[in-house]
Design goal:
Blueprint (H helix, E strand, L loop, with lengths): L1 H25 L8 H4 L11 H12 L3 H9 L5 H27 L5 H9 L1 H37 L6 H17 L6 H24 L29 H5 L7 H11 L8 H26 L3 H60 L6 H18 L4 H29 L5 H20 L9 H23 L24
Length: about 500
């Protein structure tokens, strides 16, 4: 338990100490009007209170990733917890902060437009395609996962019988509604309640495990195990762990979600709490589920068997009902199910806004919103027929590749204004090496090259990218590129340093 509490304390300290430092480097301007006020449209640009924006941001970014990822990452032992802590503070929270604040400074622009503004038009076109693909994969993952989990719950705990296809259709219908209605009608109204339920249930599971006679939190592990690969299947830690655990450490999906709340935040001074703080909150959720996965089963072999027999969803089901009984288990399980649903709908909403921004189509009228959303749902429906395991693998790589692009975008911004760019450049270098090494080494998704060769190329690619970004950005001032705003009726204004 001490090991777990130490990790949580480190995350909280990271928010107050390193978060304040990152905020100082960026330089907030409280008197500067935010897009929620300057571009208010009653649909996507809607001022909302800071607590509400925080909880919505937390639910937007926290899908099945901070649960399924840490459960699968737990197979490596407490090393997974070390990555969650370090990745969350120094990479994920920093990237989330900059993706949100740069959007605030640039009229609520999405990630592709921000990448284009600071890295060039080629980056913008690349990120438009990559972001749409990622968000579609996210939407599909976050349809299939909760549909399967709800189906198992209903069929096991009631006399009813529900088909997975039926639940997929119901969830898709909700996604369509949530994608096209104003942000404050469903997302802003109900998500804070869901966020509170999520936090309550996560803490409840942890408390139940702590006071259980059959289980104890991480009692069989020591701090030294954080530096050891304990995977019972002899899987290499590098670079797989850093792809497996994305949400909870660093996730590119978050960068696509931050602009949603950047369009609703009332003051720049709230950015650290909303963006940096929500990522820290997700890190705590990831730690809880990693600790439960490491503690509920007798050993890592038992955890591996549970995952093999039913995936990470089986671990969630077994631990929820095993620790909290039927009533508490149902509530805890539903708290987990809420996560992918509340991220899936905003994934499609982000896709709509990115496409609208790219094609310069205003989104006040419901007809235009339906026009942008319809093809996304058609493609999403087709992808639900693809094997979940395949979708998840592609999602993991696309997720981290998007994170890399946003980190380099933030570095370019800081370099342009002669600010301390290493706070984003160092994690960008590391994650670039992770992504390149993974795709070159992986024989399922990539090229199946030897690990030493893949790692060498990954490191070289990271260094080349670093030199390139510094060369094109250092001291250049604000980017002259003027991408169109989401709200096409109002021209984009250049950002102040």
């Amino acid at each position: 338990m001490i090991l777990f509490l130490t990790c949580v304390a480190a995350l909280i300290a990271g928010y107050f100490i390193y978060g304040a430092f990152v905020e100082k480097v960026f330089g907030v301007t409280p008197a500067r009007p935010t897009p929620a006020h300057s571009q208010k449209d009653g649909v996507d640009f809607v001022p909302m209170s800071t607590p509400k924006v925080y909880l919505v941001q937390l639910l937007n970014i926290a899908g099945v990733g901070p649960i399924f990822g840490p459960i699968m990452g737990a197979l490596y032992g407490p090393a997974a917890m070390l990555w969650i802590v370090l990745g969350c503070i120094f990479a994920g929270a920093v990237r989330d902060y900059f993706s949100g604040m740069l959007s605030v400074r640039n009229n609520g622009e999405s990630v592709p437009s921000l990448s284009g503004r600071y890295l060039g038009r080629g980056a913008k076109h690349f990120m438009n395609l990559f972001a749409i693909v990622l968000l579609l994969l996210v939407g599909v993952v976050f349809v299939s996962a909760p549909a399967g989990m709800i189906t198992n719950l209903v069929n096991d705990q009631t006399s009813w019988h529900v088909e997975v296809g039926t639940m997929v259709a119901i969830i898709f219908a909700y996604y369509i509604l949530a994608t096209i209605v104003p942000v404050d009608k469903i997302i802003g109204r109900f998500y804070p309640f869901f966020g509170a339920l999520l936090i309550f249930m996560s803490v409840g599971l942890l408390a139940a495990a702590s006071y259980s006679d059959q289980h104890s939190i991480l009692s069989q592990f020591t701090a030294s195990d954080m530096l050891t690969n304990l995977n019972p299947n002899d899987m290499p830690l590098w670079p797989a762990l850093f792809i497996t655990i994305a949400c909870g450490a660093i996730s590119g999906f978050h960068a696509t979600q931050s602009p949603l709340m950047a369009r609703c935040m009332e003051n720049e001074k709230n950015g650290r709490f909303v963006f940096f703080g929500a990522m820290i909150g997700e890190g705590v959720i990831a730690l809880i589920w990693c600790a439960i996965a490491l503690s509920y089963f007798d050993n890592l072999e038992g955890l591996s068997a549970a995952i093999t027999n039913g995936g990470p969803g089986n671990v969630v089901y077994a631990s929820s009902f095993g620790l909290l009984g039927v009533v508490g288990g149902v509530l805890a399980f539903l708290g987990v199910v809420i996560l992918p649903i509340t991220s899936g709908d905003t994934a499609f909403r982000s896709s709509r806004l990115i496409m609208a921004e790219y094609f310069n189509v205003e989104q006040k009228g419901i007809r235009n919103r339906l026009f942008m959303a319809a093809p996304l749902f058609v493609l999403g429906g087709i992808l639900t027929q693809v094997d979940f395991g395949v979708i998840w693998r592609y999602f993991g790589f696309a997720n981290q590749a998007t994170a890399v692009m946003m980190l380099w975008t933030a570095s370019a911004y800081l370099l342009r204004h002669n600010k301390l760019h290493w706070i984003t450049t160092v994690p960008a270098i590391f994650m670039t090496a992770v992504c390149v090494t993974f795709i070159l080494n992986n024989d399922t998704l990539g090229f199946g090259m030897a690990m030493n060769v893949s790692t060498t190329i990954g490191l070289i690619a990271s260094l080349i990218t670093t030199v390139y970004v510094i060369r094109i950005s250092k001291g250049k001032g604000e980017a002259p590129l003027a991408p169109s705003s989401v709200n096409v009726e109002k021209p984009s204004q250049p950002v102040d340093a």
